[in-house]
């Protein structure tokens, strides 16, 4: 997969899967524009990878649009930022629901709008990968708002795939199972719950960030030129009925 000379926007670049994506892209001579929240991560992204890093809270729609515009021009886009809060369905609060939808669904839409508008204006092709989750296919207890937000993201991916492909811009979704990152610690630190999940993964392990990053990079690359609008599980077989 060739990314030399390409500029790639990566949201949620500070930690976990996003950071691994940045590492792999920089290794392949891409220029990365990282969007992330924590100031400390902005500094280490600049120091470790020499990338442009923009600090933004993606829960804030106006700030997100401003950051997306500041990140341009770019050849490729990965919407990787995501967040979760565990609440049983009956106790899911409107505030938590709105927060998760803002970060997991609305922010990818805003960033993709600005990215695609600039490419269309310049008559250049591109590709978008939205990092969703197996939680958009399966009802996971305590993840009502998260499942809903990722289901919404999948809807956006499919519409983008149809509306943007005539302009030469592909859009695809990647759906990780539990991946060993700070988010997984937050969601799966109960050993009993984690064991139940692990039992349903035929390969017998949780994913590493690199397992997900490789698939993201493939879908982003020209090797996937004919792949558009798919939802690709990266789940060790979890989705097999
Ligand atoms: P992490 O929590 O490890 O990292 C998420 C990154 O996104 C962090 O850099 C975080 O910054 C950033 N981010 C979160 N909220 C915001 C915000 N409001 N504004 C700006 N940046 C933000 O998550 P993962 O790497 O595990 O997850 C990456 C993606 O993969 C997410 O979309 C997630 O939903 C998805 N996923 C993860 C799975 C897992 O098991 N890990 C399973 C399935 C899907 P900061 O820390 O500064 O807030």
Automatic annotation (TrEMBL):
<keyword id="KW-0521">NADP</keyword>
<dbReference type="InterPro" id="IPR057326">
    <property type="entry name" value="KR_dom"/>
</dbReference>
<dbReference type="InterPro" id="IPR036291">
    <property type="entry name" value="NAD(P)-bd_dom_sf"/>
</dbReference>
<comment type="similarity">
    <text>Belongs to the short-chain dehydrogenases/reductases (SDR) family.</text>
</comment>
<protein>
    <submittedName>
        <fullName>NAD(P)-dependent dehydrogenase (Short-subunit alcohol dehydrogenase family)</fullName>
    </submittedName>
</protein>
<dbReference type="InterPro" id="IPR002347">
    <property type="entry name" value="SDR_fam"/>
</dbReference>
<dbReference type="InterPro" id="IPR051737">
    <property type="entry name" value="L-xylulose/Carbonyl_redctase"/>
</dbReference>
<feature type="domain" description="Ketoreductase">
    <location>
        <begin position="6"/>
        <end position="175"/>
    </location>
</feature>
<comment type="subunit">
    <text>Homotetramer.</text>
</comment>
<dbReference type="Pfam" id="PF13561">
    <property type="entry name" value="adh_short_C2"/>
</dbReference>
<dbReference type="InterPro" id="IPR020904">
    <property type="entry name" value="Sc_DH/Rdtase_CS"/>
</dbReference>
């Amino acid at each position: 997969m060739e990314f030399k000379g390409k500029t790639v926007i990566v949201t949620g670049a500070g930690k976990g899967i996003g950071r691994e994506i940045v590492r792999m892209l920089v290794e392949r001579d891409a220029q990365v524009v990282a969007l992330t929240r924590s100031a400390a991560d902005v500094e280490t992204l600049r120091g470790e990878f020499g990338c442009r890093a923009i600090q933004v809270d993606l829960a804030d729609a106006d700030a997100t649009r401003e950051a997306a515009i500041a990140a341009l021009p770019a050849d490729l886009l990965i919407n990787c930022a995501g967040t979760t809060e565990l609440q049983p369905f009956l106790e899911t609060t409107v505030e938590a629901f709105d927060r998760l939808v803002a970060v997991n669904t609305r922010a990818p839409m805003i960033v993709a709008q600005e990215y695609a508008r600039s490419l269309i204006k310049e008559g250049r092709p591109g590709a978008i990968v939205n990092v969703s989750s197996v939680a958009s296919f399966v009802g996971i207890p305590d993840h009502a708002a998260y499942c809903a937000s990722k289901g919404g993201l999948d809807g956006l991916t499919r519409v983008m795939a149809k509306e943007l492909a005539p302009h030469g811009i592909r859009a695809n979704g990647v759906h990780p199972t539990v991946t060993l990152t700070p988010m997984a610690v937050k969601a799966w630190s109960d050993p009993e719950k984690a064991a139940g999940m692990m039992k349903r993964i035929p390969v017998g392990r949780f994913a590493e960030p690199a397992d997900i990053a490789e698939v993201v990079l493939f879908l982003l690359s020209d090797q996937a030129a004919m792949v558009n609008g798919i939802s690709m599980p990266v789940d060790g077989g979890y989705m097999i009925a």
